[in-house]
Every structure is written in C-alpha cells, then in structure tokens.
Amino acid sequence: MNTLKVLVADDEAPARNKMVRMLQSFDQVDIINISSNGLDAYNYICQLKPDVAFLDIEMPGMNGLEIIENLPPDVNPQIVFATAYNEHAIRAFELSAIDYLLKPFNEERLAQTLEKLDKQQDASNPDRVREAAEVIAPHLSPSALNKIPVPAGDRYRLLDYDEVVCIEVEDRCTQIYTISKQYSLNLTLEAVEKRLPQEQFLRVSRSAIVNIHAIQEIVMWFGNRFKIILNNGKEVITSRERAKHVKQMLKF
C-alpha cells in the first residue's frame, strides 16, 4: 500500500486518542496532524494538504461537513467521517460515495477503510458532500453554541454573537469586529453567514454582515443606498439591492 498522509480531527479526547492509536498500528499511515476542533482541522487541511482526513461530524468551530464544503479548490483530500449517526444519515453518506466509520468501530473495520482509500484514485467529490449535507444538516446541532471561534495568537477565543459588531471582507480576508478588537478568520463570508442567526445578523452587501443590535444610525446615501453607523464607530455602506432588506427590517 502507498503511504497516506493523514489528519485526524475529533473534539472528544477518548475517541480522538483511540483513532490515533489504531491508525498508528498501520505502517502505511503517516499522521501529520491531530486536531481537537473543526476550525483547527480546516486550517491544517489547507496548510498541510493531507491525503486523507478522518473527521468527526459535530465539532466546535466547524462541523465536518462545513470543513469539506469550504475547502479551496486546490485542497481535496479523501474524507472519512467517524460518526455515531443513525442509519438514515449513514445512508446519505453511502449514496454520496463517502466512506465512514460508525462509532464504536474496531481495527478490522479501519483496515477495510484504509484498503479502500489505497485503491481509490479520485478524491472525495465536493458536490456529493453537499448532497449529503442537505440530508444531514437538519439533524446537526450548532457547531458552536452561540459562539464564533476566532484565532487569537496560540489559541482560539470564543466570541459570543452579541460581541460581534460586524463582519467584513477586506483584501480577500474575512475580518470580525467587536467594540474594541479585530480578528482575522480563515473562512469565507458565505460560510460565516450560514452559521449566524438570521434574526440577529443582516447581510448588507457582498462584503459585509452587520449585527442588527449594534446599529446606531442609518443614514440615507446616494444611489438608493444607506450608510450604517455601528456602535464601534465603523461605517458600512449597503449595496443597492441589500438596502431593500434594510428597509424591510426597519419597516419604513
């Protein structure tokens, strides 16, 4: 068998340690990263480009499906989900041609997965992952309970939704603003938007989302747009199309 560069991600230490221990018993496996949350896993997959990623489904930061859905086009590892989900969810993975390990699994089952990965020529199909996501997403609990994990030096800070004033794309980098600080996030604005409560956050342009509770003033702007002044002093200009949503929200 060919050597496989492997990343393992699971937020539960016993399950993560078991997976690592079992994988280490196979000579063809080279474990290049072990992650304890979805955001770390996403970042390391992008950086290290493993051949295979063994992912738990539900993890803080990003769930396993969100990780795969948001990978750049040039990063396309083979995916194995380690899951305790019911037969309905597993069937969705089967139809999408994605391998899975149903917890609890044994070394024999893992050997079958590795053999399949060794023979498989093509990496996992992102479109099929999205198909599976449509079936499974309603059964997933939130990736992080009312919080957004953001990198802060050698750790992650968990921002409450209420702390977030706005989220903007600047120079192709997603920035999250609070009252006094700014954080860079290695996610697209679309990926962040999917995880925010629609009743609290409003997309006001292609490059900006604002927290409705952080709006201090809305100023009429040229071109049938608005200038939104936020409670941290930032000013965000709506697009013409999104200005209609602002008017609907404010009912004027």
Helix content: 25-40%
Q: Give the strand content.
A: 25-35%
> Mean pLDDT across all residues, rounded?
83
Q: Any idea what the CATH architecture of the largest domain is?
A: 3-Layer(aba) Sandwich
Number of strands: 15
N- to C-terminal separation?
66 Å
Record the strand order, biggest sheet.
2-1-3-4-5
The computed structural class is: alpha/beta
- Oligomer status: single chain
Do you know the CATH topology of the largest domain?
Rossmann fold
Count of distinct structural domains:
2
Q: Secondary-structure blueprint of this entry?
A:
Layout: E1 4-9, H1 13-23, E2 29-35, H2 38-48, E3 52-56, H3 64-69, E4 78-83, H4 87-95, E5 99-102, H5 107-119, H6 126-136, E6 147-152, E7 155-160, E8 166-170, E9 173-177, E10 182-185, H7 189-194, E11 201-205, E12 208-211, E13 215-221, E14 225-230, E15 235-237, H8 240-250
Parallel strand pairs: 1-2, 1-3, 3-4, 4-5
Antiparallel strand pairs: 6-7, 8-9, 8-12, 9-10, 11-12, 13-14, 14-15
Helix pairs in contact: 4-6
Your description of this structure?
It is a single chain. With 252 residues, this protein is an alpha/beta fold. It has 2 domains: 4-139, Rossmann fold, CATH 3.40.50; 147-250, OB fold (Dihydrolipoamide Acetyltransferase, E2P), CATH 2.40.50.1020. It contains 8 helices and 15 strands. The strands form 4 sheets. It has a 5-stranded parallel sheet, sandwiched between helices. α1 (13-23) links the parallel β1 (4-9) and β2 (29-35). α4 runs antiparallel to α6. The mean pLDDT is 83.
